[in-house]
Specification:
eight-stranded antiparallel beta barrel; disordered C terminus; mainly beta; Porin
Length: 258
């Protein structure tokens, strides 16, 4: 009898302790709120934009190596002795692909050049390029929203030349009269910064060389001369690009779903 009483008392005490423990406040921490991951910026994707700046011819680069024929006298020199600055502006389009910190891409652009044509002693109008285009590869390093890159590729442009007058005798060109397309190369470097998910600004330097071009001039109907023409430019320009982000550009914020 005593044994049953003791067992009943122990069981009742255990049940009372469990009920009291259930009423105590919990020591477990509350669940943490969900924090979405920070989006990772990437340069991968297509872009299109516009640019403007200045183009500066190199010294003594337009006409040299004159060869006179038919009794023409070398009455003037052909080297242009000054830098000629012109406005340059146009648009560009390209695509980037980022692997880790490295960014690779291809860009093409078309530019209009506006400015004076160099004039040589004797009244000869020098050659000038009014349109310049390039197709270049780009490669560089990305520091989050900033990339520093080098670039190089093909340059092409039309070369125009005014009619010459020497010692009061009007002349005309027997070759490449007016316009002709020339092909050369372009190399340079720049940096670009993305100030918004779809927008970036850039600053760029290019050196372009459109190669050599021979021209033959006639003075009236008799004597004449031939010259070798070449145009090289230092180009400094700034631009802005819009990035479409079709293939993994800068993503938008991550939205949690429960």
């Amino acid at each position: 009898m005593l044994r049953k009483f003791l067992m009943t008392t122990v069981a009742a005490t255990a049940l009372a302790g469990s009920a009291y423990a259930a009423d105590l406040p919990s020591r477990r921490a509350p669940p943490l709120a969900y924090i979405p991951p920070v989006p990772i910026f990437t340069w991968t994707g297509f872009y299109i934009g516009a640019n403007a700046g200045g183009a500066f011819r190199t010294n003594n680069n337009l006409y040299n190596n004159a060869l006179f024929f038919g009794g023409a006298a070398p009455v003037f020199g052909f080297n242009n002795g000054s830098n000629n600055g012109r406005f340059i502006g146009g648009g560009q389009a390209g695509v980037n692909y980022q692997v880790g910190q490295f960014v690779f891409g291809v860009e093409g652009d078309g530019q209009a050049l506006v400015g004076g044509r160099p004039t040589f002693p004797g009244g000869v109008g020098g050659g000038s390029t009014s349109f310049l285009g390039t197709v270049r590869g780009r490669g560089g390093l990305a520091f989050d929203r900033l990339i520093v890159y080098g670039t190089g590729g093909v340059a092409f442009g039309n070369s125009t030349t005014a009619v010459a007058t020497v010692a009061g005798i009007p002349g005309f060109f027997t070759t490449a009269n007016g316009n002709n397309m020339r092909v050369g190369y372009a190399v340079g470097a720049g940096l670009e910064y993305a100030f918004a998910p779809n927008w970036s600004v850039k600053a760029e330097y290019l050196f372009t060389d459109l190669g050599r071009n021979n021209r033959a001039y006639l003075l009236g109907t008799g004597p004449g001369f031939t010259v070798t023409g070449r145009e090289q430019n230092h180009i400094v320009r700034a631009g802005i690009n819009y990035h479409f982000n079709w293939f993994g550009g800068a993503p938008g914020p991550v939205v949690a779903r429960y």
